[in-house]
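Subject: Secreted protein structure
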Amino acid sequence: MRIRKYDFNYSRRNFLEKTAMGVGGLGVLAPMWSVAETNGDISKAYPDELMSIDMYTKGKIKTGDYIDANNVDIVKDLLDPIQYENLKNQKRRIKIVATTRDITTMYNKDHLDATLRNKGRAKWAADGNLVADTGENWLGGVPFMEPKDAKEALANITMSWGRHNFSIYAIPEVSLAPDGSIGYDREFIWAELQCQARADGKVFNDRKDLLRLQSIWFTRPNDVKGSSFLSIWYYDQRKFPDLHGYFPAFKRVRQFPTNQRFEPVVPGMTFFLSDAWSSGDPMLTWGDYQMVERKPHLAPVSENWQGDAPNWNKKVHGGGQNVTFYDTCFQLVPECVVFDTKPTGYPRAPVGKKRVWIDTRNNMYNSSITYDRRGEVWKSFETGSGRQQKGTFVQKNRDGTPAWSWDYCHVHDIQSNRMTRIHHAQASPTGYKSAYDPDYDFYNQFLTTSAIARLGQ
């Protein structure tokens, strides 16, 4: 029997061959970045069935349809196991929107410019850290535009989380009990500053030893108000970050052990420090990297920002009390890298391994699953992202271009059926506003030990 080269299963065979050979080239019919270089359109890089859910499912699911328990089995292979469980048995639904063809909308302009400017210059130093071809620390942008292995794929998200030089987010958080009722309703502020690997290619305050500074402080309710933390990341990914915390009851800043990264930030949360951006630990404290597969995937990478809603609030549905899941939009991702890694630097870690799904169009994760030490599915970290533009409502970068950012997270412990959901809000009632690269002195205001003590008072 002769197999036709471009039959419906050609893409699957192509992805299998690339995974087996460790080939990093993106695209099926043509190299993705080559066809996108004129106007960002990747359509000619993939066959129709990878650019349209209608074609992929042969009309069983169409753009604009909802996926729920009644039809989720049609696309089971396109979801992570916890998403499938949520849709099949916990009354979740997702709306299907068109696949993004213009990949320039999946980046901040300065980050894309840095990615293209530094293309092909990333390499690994003898000590395992990422450097440029000159031997200096990474210069900015996505280091491996066409990742050929799991370590390169993880570096693409570890080196720059929010893909802004500085960002601050107002974040409402709801943590749910196993029956779906609201156990905790809180709010916190998250700030992060890239010291290196910045879009502008500069080094902040000449701190070549640091990769980033990140802080978090709670603004409500009163039982956690004032609790604040500062994490200082070294560029050397073999080193644990320094973690400082301030609690109003003790009225002092203390340093915490940083290898205990698999615990709730505050009681009731399913979110751990290790979860952040699916790369919450220095990447060389994890190991045993394994590329699992390349495949199409369903992911929340566009049309989730609610810029026309008060404070960018999101509607909820499903679960035990009909408040468990945000209303979300998913699209067919034509090519996704899936890899596994294990916490080799944490002998007492409750995590056995982590599996991450990365959209190759912008090399950003959209989902990850942690497994316990028995190998059982434990917890999901699903993140919606996209351009912050909806009709005439636009959140802009400092240069006036539309911003790309994260939109929401579902952190679902499937073993206990506890869920923490957070979303990117416009502002906090306490006056903090979400922003990118603002003009004020964000370092001294948010990212020093004296700052977290002041924020906690």
